[in-house]
Amino acid sequence: MQHQPTRFNCVGCGACCKGRFIPLTLLEARQWLERGHDVAILLEAFKQPHWPASEQEYQHSLLRSAQVSCGNTHVQVTAIFAANALAQCPNLQANDLCGIYKERPLVCRIYPMEINPFIELMPQNKDCPSDAWEHGEIIASDTGPESSLSSLIQVSRLSDRADARAKVAICNRLGINVAAWKADALVIQFPAREQLLQAINAEGATPEAGPQALGKWKLRVAQSPLSEALAHGELALDEAESVNYAFHALR
Ligand code: SF4
Ligand code: SF4
Prior knowledge:
By secondary structure, the chain is an alpha+beta fold. About 30% of the residues lie in helices and about 20% in strands. β4 and β5 (about 75-85) form a beta hairpin.
C-alpha cells in the first residue's frame, strides 16, 4: 500500500531542544565538552538469546556495540555519548533558535526523521507542532527519507559503528563498567566534564588494543524475571546497594 509523502517545515519552536539527551558522535562529544557543556553516557548491554530481536535488528545493534567480558562470558555493550539537554540544550537561545546552527550535531540536522531503521517516522510521536507537518518539502516517501537526509542518516550510522569500541574503551578509562539490559532499563552516567575530555583525548592519542582495554562489565536489570534468568546464568550482575549512576527502568 502506498502512503502519502511526508511534508515538513521546521517552525523553529525549539521543542526538540528540551527535555532530552542528544546523541553525539565521538568528535561531536569532544567539541561539546570543549564548548564547556556536559555529556552524559547512556549504557545498554545485550546478548543472544536473551534479547529476542529479529536477526536484522540484532545485526544492526551488533555493529554499534563492542564485545566485553561479563562474568564467565561476553556481552555486547553500546555506550551512547549524549549532550545533556534535560532542562534544555545549552545552545538554545531565548528566541528558541539554535546558537550553533551551522555546527549543530548530526542528530539535530536529521530530526524529526528517525535514525534507527526499525523505527517508523510517526509525526504524532515527535515534538513538532501540527503546523510543521502541513506544508513544506517532502522529507520522506515510500522510497524512504529524501536524499540529503538519507545521506546524513548514513553518516550517523557509520559514525555509530566507527566510534563503538572507542566509546566503550573511554568508559573503561573512567572506571565505568555497568550497563543496563537493552530495552529493559538504562544506566546513565554523568562524568565530570574535564575527566571525560581527558579520557577522550587519551583514547584518541593512544588507543589501547585487546580485550583488557574494554574492562570487565556488570549488568543492572529492572524486570525481575529477567533478573532471575540472568542471575542463574553466567553473567555478572551489579548488586551494589549504593550506585553512582542513574538507573531508569523502561517498562
Ligand atoms: S544544538 Fe541547536 S538544534 Fe541541537 S538541540 Fe541544541 S539548540 Fe537544538
Ligand atoms: S520541534 Fe520540530 S518544528 Fe520545533 S524546532 Fe524542533 S524540528 Fe523544528
